[in-house]
Amino acid sequence: MTPGVTTPADFETDDTPAPELNIRPLVDNALLPDWRGAGKVVHSAHRIYEHLISLWAPGVIEAAHDLGVFAELSTGPKTSDQLATACDAEQRAMRVLMDGLYAYDIVDRIPADAGPALYRMSEEMHECLLPGGLFSLVGKIEYDRQLAWHSWRNLADAVRRDNRDETGSLQLNQITEHNYESLVRGINFWAPPIVEALRGGFETLEWPTDRPASVLDIGCGTGLYSQLLLRAFPGWRATGLEAPNIAPIARAQAERLGVADRFDVQVRDFWTESWGSDHDLLVFVNIFHLQTPESAQELLRRSKEALSKDGLVCIADHLVTDEKDAKSIQDRFAMLFAASMLATGGGDAFLLDDYDRWLASAGLRRVAVLDTPMHRILLAGHA
Ligand SMILES: C[S@@+](CC[C@H](N)C(=O)[O-])C[C@H]1O[C@@H](n2cnc3c(N)ncnc32)[C@H](O)[C@@H]1O
């Protein structure tokens, strides 16, 4: 496997079982003695406390990033004293930080017969936590440092005012192009399972993929969704629409993935400039959650104009399908994503019912909804 160029194809050929670790509890609820009566309060307090301390995780991971700990560990296992020297930090404090990373299963700790333990990072963690890897989270970390910490701290203000402009209208999300330069590189890891689910959806719908097809990727970011589709379907070509600072990132990544001859990114404002016509697949990934209900409908109206006769609109986003209970993983994630959009200046996680109404008024109709780990894919065609 080429470091930094992991693709769904690589996942298919690698039969190593997936690691079982997910986020592990930090509170041992089994040891809470009484669940009834007054015990319920204590139980609830433990549960809320565990939520409140979830900010420890970005705290230690981002401190290690800031200090250069991950870069140091990429050259081999080190003791905390060695890391303290290399990162210009205090020895005791570095040991505390490293044990925090160990508690979160970010690093391994190798005990020594004599002397201090060694801290080691796996290959996968290098890929995730150093810049440059296709699925690196460094962009997400930078985005958190630039914007997210501050935004979440002030969520109550956003709830008081909502995301309204001076005329009182709801506004589009306010993340700047500068913030997107970090963010789009830090969310590539979402793409492989989404593209896999999409390919499964094409098969189920018997939507032909072995013919030449034109893909338009609206607000393509790094362009990874289109680029993975181009790798899967050699007869396809894709165009991404992007802002000036992001387009070069998409161009470079298309080269890296060997699809530059079929992937074109155009610097175009998708509100004011042409989308062309007769596209077989319109791809919107993480675009609808930035919208207001009005702008979402405008995107669908434009989609209707740009879509070929048997074409599909693919919306991969955080949408709530079960308004009543909303307790599936995807619905719960979507509801919290809506809070994140509120904190960062606009957007929402819209209901499937909303999409259905908007599709109908644009002359489109839903043909499928597919689940992915954190998103859902809504596929639509002409009504
Ligand atoms: C949340 S990112 C999603 C990127 C990509 N689709 C993904 O999921 O990885 C939104 C992208 O839309 C782009 N964008 C926002 N408004 C745009 C506009 N009016 N015209 C072109 N691109 C725009 C941003 O620059 C940003 O890269």
From TrEMBL:
GO terms for biological process: methylation. One of its GO terms (molecular function) is protein dimerization activity. Keywords: Methyltransferase, S-adenosyl-L-methionine, Transferase. Residues 50-121 form the O-methyltransferase dimerisation domain. Residues 214-363 form the O-methyltransferase C-terminal domain. This is O methyltransferase. It comes from Streptomyces nodosus.
